[in-house]
Fold this sequence. Notes:
By secondary structure, the chain is of the alpha+beta class. It is built from 7 helices and 9 strands, in the order E-H-E-E-H-E-H-E-E-E-E-H-E-H-H-H.
Amino acid sequence: MSDVFTVSMRSEKIKSSAGMGVVDHHFRNCDDGFQNHGRESITDSLTTHNLSYYRDVETGEFKRAKSTKEVKTAWQSRLDTVEKTVRKDAVVANDWIFQAGDINEQPDYDHEVFIQSCLDFLSERYGNDNLVGYSLHLDEITEIDGKKRRSPHLHVLTTPVTADGRLSHKDFVTGKDTLRIWQREYKEHMSERMKPFFDVDMETKAHRRHETIDEYKARKKYEETIKAESSLLSERELEILNGERINKDKAERLADKAEKLTEREILLGKRELSLSSREKNISHNFEILKQKEQYISDTQKNVAEKILDIKEKEKHLHDRSREFERTHRAKTKEVESLKDKFISLITTVTAKTSAIDSLLSNLQQFTRLMSSRELDDFCKADKSLVDTQKEVKTAMELFEKIAPDNNLYDREYSL
Length: 415
């Protein structure tokens, strides 16, 4: 057992041209992970013990990765926040490898403490949003001097995205001096975190033993295999990413169109309701107009009948008026004729009245001389006198009718 816990830290840049093939190797314990690793140091039966997590974009928390797609989606989501177009040779991520000592000799070693210590170290320099995901490998066993050594190491993917939306690796790692400073700071950081358990020693090049020829060839072969597989995967991934971006743009456009269509449907629905209401009002008004038209038609019919009746009455009145005029003219002529006759009669009566007055005067004088009987005899004797007497009676009767109040002669006298 040892009281010294040896750690190391190094970083590899990942450019956009390399794609995301590294995810398939590092997160090989996921369901769709890259299994054809070609390394003898990897024990397949222990791969399921690896711990792989990715940062959830919505919550910002780390979640257990069930597939490499979840990690790639988190990585791409962070790159999508970059405002400018990403160059093909741009550094899109850093693969940070933190090597721990042989845990067989460290009974107090704790995975969670080791992982959280490394994440906190990078978070202070990159920010939480740039920590895409991590995977702790527990399936690699190396043999040194005939002794098997189980040394877990942690892969952490970080993106160099600045706060103002730029993709700039140099803003975080300015040069080799930065890495040397960070390695010293990492040792101090881990010493502080691991102090309750054991002392921390930083592994440097001086600690590393020389590789054998077979180990060197195996490592080179493995690196070439990974590079070739990554290159093939990167091309396919670029096509997929471009397709996903196109599909994403199409989906966004379709979503916008769907939203606009939904708004238009709502507007059309409101218009349809309004038109339906207006249609009901129009139908109601149309019924009222039909009733009014029927009323007007009936009224016009009644008026026409009354006009005909009035015309008939006017014709009847006109005929009666003409008849009245004819009758009036006839009566007027008759009255004029009677008037003329009456005037002539009055003239005659007046003349005869004078004669009668004279005669009466003479008769009075005569009657004084003669008796009544003698007078009758005298009158009989003279026929003209008899006719005159009749005319006098007739004249007297006429004057009694015309002017009953006029005393033409003495009332005490009678013929």
